[in-house]
Design brief:
- This protein is α/β, with parallel strands linked by helices.
- The protein folds into two domains: 4-79 and 154-258, Rossmann fold (3-Layer(aba) Sandwich), CATH 3.40.50.300; 91-136 and 147-152, no CATH class.
- Helices cover 36% and strands 24% of the residues.
- It has eight helices and ten strands.
- It has helices spanning 48-56, 95-105, 112-122, 138-151, 168-184, 196-202, 230-233, 237-258; strands spanning 4-15, 20-32, 37-41, 63-68, 71-72, 80-83, 156-160, 188-193, 205-209, 216-221.
- The strands form two sheets. It has a six-stranded mixed β-sheet with strand order 6-7-8-3-9-10, sandwiched between helices. The chain has a four-stranded antiparallel β-sheet with strand order 2-1-4-5, with helices on one face.
- A hairpin with a 4-residue loop joins strand 1 and strand 2 (20-32).
- The protein binds adenosine-5'-triphosphate and magnesium ion (MG).
- Adenosine-5'-triphosphate (ATP) binds next to strand 1, strand 2 and helix 1.
Length: 264
Amino acid sequence: MLEVTIEHLTVEYELLREKEILVALWDLNLRVLPGEFFVIVGPSGCGKTTFINTIVGLVKPTNGRVLIGGKPVMGPGPDRAVVFQDYALMPWRTVESNIKFGLELQGRLKGANKIIKEVISLVGLNGFEECLPHELSGGMRQRVGLARALATEPKVLLLDEPFGALDAMTREMMQSEFEKILLRTSQTVIFITHSIDEAVTLGDRIAVMTAGPGQVKVILNNQIPRPRYEIDIRNKKIYNDLRDEIWQLLKDEQEAQMSISTFE
Ligand SMILES: Nc1ncnc2c1ncn2[C@@H]1O[C@H](COP(=O)(O)OP(=O)(O)OP(=O)(O)O)[C@@H](O)[C@H]1O
Ligand SMILES: [Mg+2]
């Protein structure tokens, strides 16, 4: 478990065809504490994926820096793992082999089979080891993505709308399972979502981002005790109050984002 510190982070993209600069993130500051489950919500296009990719080390800051456990990020590293919205599985590899991929990248093949067995069991995919991704449901594919990330035993787990492609029912079930899995593992989690319900169910703290260029607008503390299963808490006043607060904050930014029509 490591702290993630973001200091004055600005990320600009060069749009070569238009010869323009697009400012995706602007002077963003944030501290995510070791072991915290930190959720980020924000309007589409405000820079959430850019933010995750910068922490992973795939996107370089234009200004500012990201520190993991006090050390500046210079590129991807074994202390971080990502779960993507579109699963990002290799279609020709089996479940087992897809999960192994993360360990292969790290050159950690010794003891790999034992770890793979453990994470397969953790995410409930026993019996599906030899299946190819196309033989699985969306929820199962996302479990493979999660297992691949967990197998590398990251200190920081980054998730970019991991349940975004799932239907409402599967999504809710995945959230509860995910909650259980994470209670049995330990890492700092940064979780991006479009869903306010998901944010309130999963986040210990929830940051609402501004319209692009993205900054942290406000951080809310979730006072609902863990474990939080949506089905148990969604009728409680405390849940709905927090939900409404986020909704209001997000609504203003969503409107602002939709009115952005020209590049910076
Ligand atoms: N590789 C890139 N090159 C140029 N511009 C990019 C690139 N990636 C993202 N952008 C731009 O940066 C801004 C932020 O994009 P990003 O994907 O980070 O947003 P997001 O908040 O993840 O959106 P969504 O909620 O739709 O996933 C957008 O205006 C997008 O067009
Ligand atoms: Mg995104």
